[in-house]
Amino acid sequence: MVSYKELGLVNSRELFKKAMAGKYAIPAFNFNNMEQMQAIVQACAETNSPVILQVSSGARKYANQTLLRYMAQGAVEYAKELGTNVPIVLHLDHGDTFELCKSCIEYGFSSVMIDGSHHAYNENVELTAKVVEYAHKYDVTVEGELGVLAGVEDEVSAEHHTYTQPEEVQDFLSKTGVDSLAISIGTSHGANKFKPEQCTRNADGVLVPPPLRFDILEEIEKRIPGFPIVLHGASSVPQDKVALINKYGGALKDAIGIPEDQLRRAASSAVCKINIDSDGRLAMTAAVREVFATKPTEFDPRKYLGPARDSLKELYKHKIVEVLGSANRI
Ligand code: G3H
Ligand code: 13P
Ligand code: ZN
Question: How confident is the model at residue 154 (pLDDT cuts 50, 70, 90)?
Answer without folding.
Answer: very low
